[in-house]
Amino acid sequence: MNRFTNQGKIHFPKNKIFRLARRPKKQKSQVVLKECFCPNGHSLIDENMHFCEHPGIKVKVKRNGNDEGFLALSPKFGDYSKITIDIKLKNGDLLEMFCPECNAKLPVYSSCYVCDNQMLTLFTSSEKSYSHCLGVCQKVGCHNSKMVESKRMLYSVAKTCS
Ligand SMILES: [Zn+2]
Ligand SMILES: [Zn+2]
Questions:
Q1: Backbone Cα Rg of the chain
Q2: Which of 27, 71, 104, 153 sits most deeply, having the most CB atoms within 10 A of its CB?
Q3: Where do the domains of the chain lie?
C-alpha cells in the first residue's frame, strides 16, 4: 500500500490502530516532505534545489537581523544538509525566514527547548494549520526539528552539532 497520500502526507490506514512504537527506527530518515507552504499558501518547494533526487524547501532568510539571502533545506526529515544562496551562515547565527514569493514571515511555532531560541513554522498543508506543520529551530547548528501531523507529533529530532 502507498504510504503517502497525494499531498505527500503519510497515509494511515483508517481501520487499523497506528502504533508508532512498532515502526522500525530506520524509517525516520525516509520521510520526505512533498509539500510545504508559507502562511499565505505559496509552495516553498523549489524544483531547482536538489537534495539527492528530491526538490528542496526554499525560504528567504535574514541573518542576525542583517544580511539577506536564500536557504534551501533538505525535504528529508532528519537530514540537515542545506544550500545557501547569496549568504554565508555559521553555527550560532539566528535566522528569520520568509516566503520568497510574498515575503510573509514564517511564524513562531514554539520556543526551542534545546537552545532557548525560537522554532519557526513551515506548514505542510496550504490551510495554514498548526496541526499540519514542521517546526525548525531558527539557530544555525541547532538541529531541533519536529513534524506535526493531525496534532500528533510524528517525529522529533534534537541533535546539536558542535
Ligand atoms: Zn507566500
Ligand atoms: Zn534550537
A1: 15
A2: 71
A3: 31-160
Q: Residue 16 C-alpha to ligand 2 middle, in angstroms?
A: 35
Return the residue matching grid coordinates 505559496. 42
d(CA 112, CA 1): 36
Provide the Cα torsion 147, 120, 50, 52; round to 10°.
-40
Q: State in Å: Cα 128 to ligand 2 middle.
A: 23
What is the pLDDT confidence band of residue 113, given thresholds at 50, 70 and 90? Answer: very high
pTM higher than 0.90, yes or no?
Answer: no
Q: What is the pLDDT of residues 66-80, one digit of tens each?
A: 999 999 999 998 888
Which ligand lies nearest the alpha carbon of 157?
2
Q: Find, among 81, 82, 80, 76, the residue nearest to 27 by Cα.
A: 76
Q: 121 with 109: CB under 8 angstroms?
A: yes
